[in-house]
Specification:
The radius of gyration is 31 Å and the shape is globular. The protein is an alpha/beta fold and 536 residues long. 50% of the residues lie in helices and 8% in strands. It is built from 21 helices and nine strands.
């Protein structure tokens, strides 16, 4: 751009044209600088994530609640009235002669008894007439040389207390327990099949009876390889599963909740059509007499019979196409298995718009949608003004959606649909923002799922809160070394979160399952989750 002439010689129209040209040039330079900054970050291997504050949309649209001072105390009454007194002790006062006794003044003190307790069991041995030796059994809950109370303490401290193995071992030894690190690892991972099974049953109950679930994922390392841990849950349960990748097929496999079969049914065929699988392949799978395959090997053999399980001879379809056909067919068959087992019948899956979660009835998180507008790079004041205006419209619309959930009516539903079109079809003059608005408008059905299903939430905050426990575990302990360790970590994190959502003590739950003497029975969590989901 040539240097400008003497400004004093320019007319008002020439000055205006010059200012417009300069503003345009500055905007182009800012865009170029932003692109170069991103490219430099990419070449350096940086993710380039901007340091953005949370949008605050959910918090700002909440109604003002009572302060802690105004909130009623849970349960009501004095706190001491709800405490069980284990011991009473009379404390004498040094009263002078002639004083009159006026009774007692009660004062309740809580304390913790934490010390080793070693029991020597003298087990009777009998020799039967036929020469067999009978030895008395150890009490229920005893594993090796360690009792159920110690096992409960170790599990609670490690999974709920999020302690490292080294610190847990130091703490136990400081108390006075003679135990090795290997023995602590065994108590954490060996013989936990009942807990893993109950965690799986909790997932099955949620998938069968919940009206909605929300999902999220985060990184996880297993056997020194990067993987992903997926969270599935709602207000009544949480479940975690670690897989090698975050593909759609992996997510569908998690939704089978432990089943390993493949089913060709109406749901499977509809999924294949929706995913664009070739018509002749769908027809061949639909017309075949076999529709249920119990193992992966049986399913792969069935695909091979149709020529889509492995690369074909020279002159046929490319190997990449064959593998893609096999993947799409497998995704459909796994989805058919999900439906065949009675999961996700009318359940809405709420996610943050990650592609692998787009299965079945799908809804999108509004907080993540607004965040896209919030984090747009702006270069001029006009861009910032347009961004702020659109964010204000979205916040206002979001607040009205929350009000609609508590009082849904057909008239308000129609009005909100029309408002959505007016907000996301507008033209602001900010090209990046306009493209984003068109993209969000294309997700209209998923963003407005709440209009047809007012019971579902508008955000995935619950999933993000749940998955923080896995993030904390990852930061503390890194990854897992064995499949058993991975399964135990996922199961206990999910069981602890589920207990919290059901307002059950995880400590009491562990005591009930490990047969700690004097602990009241805690019902099966899957049964409670199923009941709560049906009542919701």
């Amino acid at each position: 751009m040539p240097p400008p002439p003497d400004l004093t010689t320019l007319s008002p129209s020439e000055l205006r044209d010059l200012v417009i040209a300069l503003v345009t040039r500055v905007t182009e330079l800012e865009r170029s600088v932003a692109a170069q900054r991103d490219e430099i970050a990419r070449l350096k291997g940086h993710t380039g994530r901007p340091t953005l504050k949370p949008s605050g949309m959910e918090t700002a649209t909440k109604p003002k609640s009572l302060t802690d001072k105004d909130k009623p105390r849970p349960g009501g009454g004095k706190k001491t009235a709800r405490r069980a007194v284990h011991q009473e002790q009379v404390l004498k006062a040094a009263a002078p002669p002639g004083s009159r006794f006026k009774g007692y003044e009660s004062f309740v003190v809580q304390d913790l008894v934490l010390r080793p307790h070693v029991t020597r069991y003298r087990r009777e041995r009998w020799l039967t007439p036929d020469g067999q030796t009978i030895t008395a059994s150890l009490p229920t809950g005893t594993v090796g040389h360690f009792g159920p109370e110690l096992r409960r303490f170790i599990l609670a401290q490690y999974h709920q207390g999020q302690m490292t193995m080294a610190r847990l071992l130091t703490q136990i030894r400081a108390i006075g327990i003679d135990i090795s690190k290997r023995q602590v690892v065994r108590l954490l991972t060996h013989g936990q099949d009942d807990f893993i099974t109950e965690a799986r049953d909790v997932l099955r109950a949620g998938l069968a009876d919940a009206t909605w679930i929300s999902v999220d994922d985060t990184g996880a390392r297993h056997k020194a390889v990067n993987g992903v841990c997926t969270q599935i849950g709602n207000d009544h349960f949480a479940w975690f599963g670690t897989t090698a990748s975050k593909s759609r097929l992996n997510f569908l496999d998690l939704l089978r909740a432990g089943h390993a079969d493949y089913v060709i049914n109406a749901a499977a065929l509809a999924s294949m059509r929706g995913r664009g699988l070739a018509g002749p392949v769908i027809a061949a799978l639909a017309d075949h007499a076999d529709t249920h395959f119990a193992t992966p090997a049986a399913w792969q053999a069935h695909l091979a019979g149709h020529g889509i399980a492995s690369p074909t001879p020279r002159g046929a379809a490319p190997a990449a196409l064959i593998l893609d056909l096999a993947r799409l067919a497998t995704e459909g068959a796994v989805w058919g298995s999900v439906k065949a087992h009675g999961f996700l019948r009318e359940t809405v899956i709420l996610s943050d718009d990650a592609g692998q979660f787009d299965v079945g009835r799908h809804a999108l998180c509004w907080v993540h949608a607004e965040r896209l507008v919030h984090k747009l790079d702006t270069f001029t004041q006009a861009h910032r003004t347009a961004q702020d205006h659109v964010r204000g419209l979205i916040w206002w619309f979001y607040s009205d959606l929350k009000a609609y959930r508590s009082d849904p009516t057909p008239r308000r539903r129609s009005e909100l649909r029309s408002r959505f079109d007016r907000i996301f079809r507008r033209s602001t003059g900010f090209a990046s923002l306009d493209r984003l608005l068109r993209r969000l408008h294309a997700n209209k059905d998923e963003l407005l799922m709440v209009l047809d299903r007012p019971e579902i939430p508008l955000h995935t905050n619950g999933s993000e809160n749940d998955i923080r426990s896995q993030v904390t575990r990852r930061k503390i302990s890194g990854g897992t070394r064995s499949d058993t360790g991975r399964d135990c970590r996922d199961a206990f994190l999910g069981l602890a979160k589920t207990c919290a959502k059901l307002r059950l003590s995880f400590w009491d739950y562990l005591g009930s399952r490990l047969a700690v003497p004097g602990i009241h029975h805690v019902p099966n969590l899957a049964a409670i989750v199923s009941l709560r989901c049906r009542e919701a």
